[in-house]
Design a protein that fits this description.
This protein is mostly beta strands. The chain has one domain: 10 Kd Chaperonin, Protein Cpn10, Chain O. The chain has no helices and 8 strands. The chain is globular and about 45 Å long.
Length: 87
């Protein structure tokens, strides 16, 4: 399935959030994370501040979650993005 975002909407594939403790054990921390990071997959024609491949930071309650080919994605407005990670 292909989804084309309209206007100021941005399609993001959230990244899995993990935390490594001192002993090297990796812990999945989905439940306690307030902001989520994800790769920008596509965006509508009115989006001006982000590009494909950027890593966006957004609230875990922003946008609409759905699956494309069994992979979780989020469709959100550009103004819901609170930051972009440096490459």
């Amino acid at each position: 399935m292909k989804v084309q975002p309209l206007n100021d909407k941005v399609l993001v594939r959230p990244k899995k959030v993990e935390e490594t403790i001192h002993s090297g054990i990796v812990i999945k921390v989905d439940g306690k994370v307030e902001n989520i990071r994800g790769e920008i997959i596509d965006f509508g024609k009115d989006v001006m501040l982000v590009q494909k491949g950027d890593t966006a930071i957004f609230s875990k309650y922003a946008g609409t979650e759905f699956k494309i080919d069994e992979v979780k994605h989020v469709l959100l407005s550009e103004h819901d993005i609170i930051g972009v990670e440096d490459k």
